[in-house]
Amino acid sequence: MSKLDWLGGLAPYLPPAFGALIGLRNAGSQTSTQRVVSFFLGFGLAVYMGPAIAEIFSLGPKATIAAGILTAVVGMDVIGGLMAVAQQFRSAPIATVKEWWGLWWNRGAS
Fold first, then answer.
1. Could you give the number of structural domains in the chain?
2. Domain that holds residue 69
3. Which of 28, 67, 84, 104 has the fewest Cβ atoms within 10 Å of its own Cβ atom?
4. Phi, psi of 36 (to 5 degrees)
5. Residue 44: its H or E element
6. What is the pLDDT of residue 23?
7. Predicted local confidence at residue 75, as pLDDT
8. Using CA atoms, how far apart are residues 64 and 67, in angstroms rounded to an integer?
9. pLDDT at position 62, please?
10. Distances (CA, A) of 65 to 8, 13, 30, 74, 76
11. What confidence tens digit (pLDDT) does each residue in 22-42 have?
12. Which of 15-19, 32-36, 68-72, 85-89 has the lowest mean pLDDT?
């Protein structure tokens, strides 16, 4: 049992991942603990990056809040995808590298 397993109980109370809504492959395969951790990391990313984005584009207060929310949503999915890839890499490192290399260079899975 991991130290973070208790976080899985919070997963039903989180909003659904945006990536799962649009069919992102890795967003649907997250465990409950990964989902909670990616939510909190995405929220932290939004707290830091939302105002930075607003300052770069000279946005007002309402647009700053919207930028923070969008950063949190996208950040949650990106971090969740990275967690899923890390879990896949842990089980089969060479196969994962070959698959992602092939997908990156538009050759399909090797």
1. 1
2. 16-104
3. 104
4. -65, -45
5. helix 32-56
6. 46
7. 81
8. 5
9. 92
10. 28, 22, 27, 14, 17
11. 445 555 666 777 777 777 888
12. 15-19
